[in-house]
Write a structure and sequence with these properties.
The protein is an alpha+beta fold and 98 residues long. 27% of the residues lie in helices and 33% in strands. The protein has a 4-stranded antiparallel sheet with strand order 2-3-1-4, covered by helices on one side. Helix 1 runs antiparallel to helix 2.
Length: 98
Amino acid sequence: MNDEHKQPLHDESLTTLIEFPAEFPIKVMGKNSTEFRALVLKIVNEQIPSEKLLRVDEQLSSNEKYLSFTIVAIFEDQESIDKVYLALTADPLVLMAL
């Protein structure tokens, strides 16, 4: 495939429905473990400035096998949201990020 047909991860010409800066939630899920919890909190602390982080909520699944986090922060642009998603999904402990 030739390079001129490849799509960039984020195309500035695409119209977004989000008006920035925006309060935006990211949900991330994995198996309930101390390693997963530590990973998510480490990524949040590295990727989101503390003054932009509004809250981090945790919820166990009904059988307590899985753990989900809802991370709510103020993001300045789509690129900053993408950076958090990429950091989260780069680790195999993360089963899903929405």
